[in-house]
Amino acid sequence: MGSFDGAEVCELVGLFLLKKITGFTPPEKVGLYRDDGLIMLENIDGPSTERLRKKLHATFQQEGLKITIENPSTVVDFLDVTFNCSDGSYRPFRKENSVTEYVNKHSNHPPQIIKRIPEIVQKRLSTISSTKEIFEESKHFYEECLQRSGYINVELKFTPTPEGTSRNKRNRSRNILWFNPPWSESVSTNIGKKFFSLIKKHFPRGHRYRSFINRNSVKLSYSCMENMRSIITKHNVSLLKKSNTPPPSTSQSCNCRTSTECPLEGKCLTKSIVYEATLKTSEDTYTYIGLTGDTFKARYSAHKSSFKHEKYRTATTLSQKIWELKESNIDYTLTWSILKKAHTYKGGGRAKCDLCLTEKLEILKRSGDKGCLNSRTELLSKCRHRRAFTLTRTVFKT
């Protein structure tokens, strides 16, 4: 619960259990959304209900799980809807102590979002209300919530879905590139218009990339900044973490046998850094930017292996250059230094890796330097630290 892949794992476990349950229940009468399941059975007697209850307990117990089954009822709450099986009606449902909040009308959000919030609430209430009378009974609470959020004089109206209508399904899927600039009311420039004008200018008709980057394949969607609550919470967490973390001891910064032989001047055990390697010859000077989420000494061992064994000569652009100097019998000196310290990606947090972004920023700063050995393709690479938190890298033990 609450982990980075919690939703995906929950769906996998739910689908697995749903497959086993449908072995002794009608598949069309069983539903599942994440961790909420519902079974609706008609004309079932007491003994059949007891047998079904025992099968459900046994199925969950086989997987090391427990389940609580209440007495059969004709009225059930599922997600945000209350179903009444006796008369076929349904109405909105909310928990007693739940707090309903909407984005404030004066919040720093795109106008399209602010404008459509009352419409979205009205459409959802109409969808989960079987009759207009039920809608009228439930709408007052949501109108008050909208008024507290700044939507004055909002009146929700019942809009039933016409019978026999269905959503249009497109058979052809299109690969869309999304441009997500952050939204701010203080910015007067029309970012979207400027962006699409640049696409039209640099990718005209006849351009070899026109089929991939055009007005139909590139879409714009503004992203919202963090609210003050999340900013203050994050700030407080960082302060508490610093106060509870003991200061690092100097003895843990290096474990080299001879301190004078440390490649990083006594700081080889430093973690999560962006480092710089300076390669000097009698005529030229070259630089290489790298990063490591582990200790620098572990990364330094990998570099030494690529300098020593020819089969690893293409591991980095730095090792390629050193092998070229070796083959030309050119003497060189190699020194290392720390450029920046940053945090790596953490599961369940924001979808950014400060360490990878810092490395790309340092490479961009040296983009005009002919002595920089880093290639431009490194700027387009994905975060390697995020892969460790994906579901495909998760190992399940039985």
DSSP E strands, number? 10
Category by helix and strand content: alpha+beta
Mean pLDDT: 84
Put simply, the count of helices is 9
What is the CA-based Rg, rounded?
30 Å
Main β sheet profile: 3 strands, antiparallel
Shape: extended
The low-confidence parts are: 394-398
Secondary-structure element series: HEEHEEEHHEHEHEEHHEH
- Percent of residues in helical segments? 25-40%
How much of the residues is beta strand, in percent?
Answer: 5-15%
Straight-line distance between termini: 20 Å
What is the spatial order of strands in the main beta sheet? 3-4-5
Defining key terms:
9 helices, three-stranded antiparallel β-sheet, 33% helix, alpha+beta, 398 residues, single chain
How are the SSEs ordered, and which strands pair?
Blueprint: H1 6-21, E1 30-33, E2 36-39, H2 46-62, E3 75-78, E4 81-84, E5 89-92, H3 111-127, H4 132-148, E6 177-179, H5 191-202, E7 218-220, H6 228-244, E8 271-280, E9 285-295, H7 296-308, H8 317-327, E10 333-341, H9 354-365
Parallel strand pairs: 6-7
Antiparallel strand pairs: 1-2, 3-4, 4-5, 8-9, 8-10
